Structures are given as C-alpha cells and as structure tokens.
Amino acid sequence: MVADKRRSIRALAPMNLFLADVRDGVGPYLAIYLLTVRHWQPGPIGIAMSLPGLVAVLLQTPAGSWVDNSQHKRRLLVLASAVVAVSCLVAVTFVSPAIIYATQALTGAATTIYAPVVAAITLGLVGHRRFAQQTGRNEAFNHSGNVLAAMLAGLIGYYWRYEGIFYLVAAMCVLGSWSALRIDPAAINNELARGQSADASDPAAENNSATVSAPVAGPTAGIRQMLANPRILRFAVAVVLFHFANAAMLPLVGQKLALSNQKASALFMSACIIVAQLVMVPVAAWVSRRAPEAGRKPVFLLAFAVLPIRGVLYTLSNNAFFLVSVQVLDGLAGGIFGVISVIMIADLTRGTGRFNFVQGAIATALGIGAALSTVGAGYLVQHFGYRAGFLALAVVATVALGFFWYCVEETNPVLAPNQLPEPATS
C-alpha cells in the first residue's frame, strides 16, 4: 500500500504537467484566433471568452459538492478531459459563431472539475501537513506544462496554422487522462480529501493542545453555515476583485500584439505565456516552502500589490518586447495566487467536510469576476481604446489590494490558532 501511495503521489507530477493547458481550454489563443482567422470584433470576442466563466457561475459550486461526494475522482478528470478534447476538435471543424459559443460553454462546464479534483486528490493522498508543499509542486509542474504548451502552440501557430493549437490541447487531454489513471484510487483517503477529517500529522494537532484543537472526523458542516462564514466571504470578495482585474489583461495584450504584427502574434502570445509561466515555476516552489511556517497573508499581499502596477505598465508602450517583459509581474502574481489561494481555502474549511464545495463556490465567484472582466473590458476597449481598458483594470486591482489588506485575516492555524474554523454542527 505504501508503494502504491508513493507511486500515486509521483503520478501527480505528469498529471499536472499535461492538464496545465487543458484547465483553461485554448485560453488566450482563442481571442487571437477569432480576431485574425475568423475576423471577429472585440465585443463578440469578449462574449466568447467570457462564456466559460458564465457557465462556471452555474456549475462550479455543484461541481465542488460532486467532488466532495464522489469516490471516483480520477474518472471525473477523464470525463472532463474528454469533453474539452471534443470541444476543441468541433471548434475548428465548424465555422458558425453559435458553434464557437457552444464549445466554449462546454469547455467551461468541463473545466469546473479540474481544480477541486486535483486539490482533493492531493489532500487525500498527502494530508494537511504536506498539502502546502505538494500544492506548490503541483503548481510548479502545472506552470511547466503551460510553458511546454505555449512553446508548442507558438510554433504550431507560426509555422503551420492556428487550428493546430486546438489539436494540441486535445492531445494533452489524452495524456492528462492517462496520468490520472495511474493514481491508485485506494490510496486516496476520501474523507481527508473533502476536509472532513484530520491526518495524524496535521500541524494543528502538533501545537499546544490547550490553544489549538485539531479537527477530527465529524458531521459535515451545513452549506448555509459555510456560505455565511464571514471569513470565507471576505476572502471570496478579495479574490473575486483580484480576478476581475486580472482576467482580461492577457487577452487584451494578445489583441494588441495581433493588431501590430498578425503573422507573429502567436509567437508573441506564446512569449507572454512562457515568460509568466517560467517565473511561476520558482515562485510556486518558493511559496510551497514558506507556506507551512510563514503567514499566508503577507505572501498573498505581494500578488495583490503587483497587479495594479502591471495594468498601468501596459498603457506605456505598444512595443511587443516591452509588453512581453511586463509578463514577469503576471508570473509573480500568478505563482503566488495558484498556491496560496488553495492553501487558504483548506485552512478555512479544515474539519468541515466542505473543502471542495467551498473551492467550487469561490470558483463560481471567480467566474463571475472573469466574465464581467472580459466582457466589460472588451466593450470598453471597443469604444474608448486599450489604454482606457487597462487603466480601468488597474483601478479595480487597487481596490482589491486595499480590501485584502484591511479585511482578510491570516489563516495559518500555526500562527493564528484562534482562527481555526468552528466544528461542524449536525
């Protein structure tokens, strides 16, 4: 059994590597594809880009509950990957806008599964004590996979045709599914995976028992109890504001690059993604090493702080190399966000049995922020230009920074034992 668990933990690396680009579908490449190949206007492009987020608003929270209750988490990943792969193939086969909208909606539905399932499998395999470290490793491989996919996508788009990028994502769906099936389902503690019980090495259990009470298996917290938790609500508002400011930036940069150099737009977009992802790899590793002992909030504040700076910098020049270099800040913020946000949710839901449900609920809120961001920014750019769009996003990012600073508490149970969630009530 020990060997099976170790083998299953090792399988998390290729799974995160191959599913990296799948989790976002074709991502920002779709905006360029619709602009340069299909000749769409920025407004309809914004609608197409926002559809996955809108679908997530409806399905992400039920998806989290589904993951909490499922005993077949690997199969959920395979099913979601199959839907994304088919959607990619259909999108390049048919030219109707309705088909594009439909495939984006299906992709959005499928991708609601990825984040909660990967986090649940990870927690179920390694427990709370090693969760921060393993989440950082997951994110490092995830970002490495994005680099690999971006390099291949850029070369395919430049030397072949844009449709090849969609085929690439479909291929990664197959490889990601193969990796997920290498995990032994018997090695996953499904109670631990939903945050309902604490593993024996939970750091909260190793501190002074007079001040810290490790959560133990018990009744699952009620949905109303979780949704009414003020700490969870404040955290959700902060990350929604962050995502609202962040979601539209890269697609808008891609459109600027496409307008100035259509043939090389795929290469420049790949460069944007690669620069950010290369920064995210060491940042995620650094965060995972600090997270078990250090506070979550000071590290997360850094991610919030660089976002308004990034929005302003995009207005200073149209030079492609300058725009690509600004992506270093995206890498810094994204590397922190991807690790700390999941860890803070695990902190906030410890002992409640609602880890994946809360992940889904917050992802629903993020979907709202992303959808409003891409649609709003798209039409703002269409009527007032790219400068106005980026400045508006920078203002929202500044509001997000202030809210997180003043309203969100530290969640590390080692540093703030009095902030542990209350036990679930039956």
UniProtKB/TrEMBL annotation:
Keywords: Membrane, Transmembrane, Transmembrane helix
Residue stretches making up the Major facilitator superfamily (MFS) profile domain: 222-426
Record-annotated membrane-spanning stretches: 76-100, 106-128, 140-159, 165-181, 232-254, 266-287, 299-316, 322-345, 357-380, 386-408
Keyword Signal included in the entry's annotation: no
InterPro entries: MFS, MFS_dom, MFS_trans_sf
A UniProt-annotated Pfam family: MFS_1
Single GO MF descriptor: transmembrane transporter activity
Gene3D superfamilies referenced in this protein's UniProt entry, alphabetically: MFS general substrate transporter like domains
UniProt-recorded name of the protein: MFS transporter
Organism: Hymenobacter crusticola
